[in-house]
Hints:
The complex is a heterodimer. By secondary structure, chain A is an alpha+beta fold. Chain A has helices at 7-11, 73-78, 86-89, 97-112, 118-146, 152-172, 192-216, 220-226, 234-239, 245-249, 256-259, 280-304, 358-362, 366-370, 375-385, 389-393, and strands at 33-37, 49-55, 58-65, 181-182, 185-186, 325-333, 336-344, 352-356. Chain A is 45% helix and 12% strand. In chain B, the strands form two sheets. Chain B has a five-stranded mixed β-sheet with strand order 1-2-5-4-3. A two-stranded parallel sheet of chain B has the order 6-7. The radius of gyration of chain B is 24 Å and the shape is elongated.
Amino acid sequence: MSLTQSDSAAVAGQLEGWSRPTMMEPESEGELMEVAMGPHHPSTHGVFRMDVTLDGERVMRLRPVFGYLHRNHEKIAEGQSYLASMPYTDRLDYICPLTNNWAYALAVEKLAGQEVPERAEYLRVILGELTRFQNHASSIGFLTQEMGAMGTPLMYAFREREKILDLFEELTGARMMVNYMRFGGCRVDASTEWLERTRKVVAGLNKFTDEFDRLLSTNEILMARTQGVGVLKAELAVNAGVTGPMLRASGVNYDIRKVDSYSIYNRCKFRVPLGDHGDVYDRYMIRMLEMRESIGILEQALRDIPGGPVMSPTAKIRGFRPKPGEAYGRIEAPKGELGFYLISNGGPNPYRYRVRPPSLINLTVLEDMCLGVNVADVVLIFGSVDIVLGEVDR
Amino acid sequence: MKTVEEIKSAIEEAVPGAAVEIAPNPNPALPHSLRIAADNMLAAAKFLRDDAELKLDYLSNVTGVDWPESLEAVYHLYSVEKKHGPVIIRMHTENRTDHVELPSLTPIWRSAEFQEREIFDLYGIVFTGHPDLRRLLMWEGFKDHPMRRDYVAPDDFEYEPTAHDEVLKRAQAHEAALHGQSIPGQTGTEAGA
């Protein structure tokens, strides 16, 4: 089988300040083999394909193939009113529907100059951090599953996730497809009982995190499999637009909750954990530490949440037509920077509706991290990126 | 951070002859953007990334927009080092039909790699200098650009041009070529070809 050098290698010399991975030189004299990992492969978290060129067990080239779940979300959103897209954002990153709601609401509020009442901001932070917690817990669970810990850590993570989803269900009416936020607030108010129950769940999360930490962080197999694997340098991470825990694992201090201090994050005390090596273990560890910070934010927000309305009295639901203009709103979603770019021409529909998907852009560096490693490690490195295909393909 | 006007004059100073204009946001409460001529874009982008004061080292978002007269690419830039932004730069093609080339900014910021591929796929802007310009979301062999506003979706949504017939024909020819001489009754096949 003959393989031509990747077409991209030819122009690699013209790139400014970064280099694109080129196909590696095989060491053995045997034949190279091309394997399509996916779209139906247990490790790909959905319908994603990696075309891997192998020399024995080593990866010589990796080409991600997207689009199996593409439904042109952006086009659909341009054909309907602003509010009608809100439930559709739940389906982007379906592990974290509430942060998707939040990012979209934030962008539209920027566009329309809409204020949000304080209680709604607190509720958003509470729900956003609960979402972050369950996302990180399940993503660690999936990662350990991929290194052969069949089920145990994942089941522990899902046990906690279930409690959080029960809270979501009680508040919004749905476990995952929540459709909860509105431009100028939230759809329904949280009852005192709900807040009390949330406090109880949050108090239990500390114990779970300790347990999870003890179970995994110093586990010999986990350390042997993840340390020094899939290293991502800080410079490349910034240039490639990598965001979220993956960027911070490479040691770059960039958390949009701190940088933009949107909502009420400037009132919350929390630290931004940073990694040293940028390997899979660091990415695992950053998620673990962020879970602890999320608990801290949750405790503060649940303590300080004020009374009052959850919808701004100036918010317009029917006949909502923002003035002509364009706005970009972004939040620190569990997977990275989730942004919405909207152009309004004064009509009831957005003229342009764009989702900046963290999952897709974090995959830019997948090939860089995977070249030269064994196939089994590709699964781990891919798992440590933490993606959801609903958002990658949109 | 510098204002849009200051950034405009800084670019004009650094890139001689650059055509930069401020594209006002119709809503004056929201940030304005800079429209840069496609010819000067690469140099201006390199300046924005490397300038010691701006250091816009992080390209967050690339958006394609279909306007009635032209196609546009919008870039949202932030600085991870200085923690400021966004600076919004945009460039547009000559028209929507035959002059749809724009310089790719992937050589400057790698994060444009997939996003420009997506715009090429869905809008049909051809990014010259992109290291790997292929369709991202639609399948290979798809003809149109579905995000364009004049795109008409086919009636048969479920239809996908799978290669069954063609592949079948090729497979039959291959089989015939392999076994053509030994299988009686199959005349006219190019045995051994």
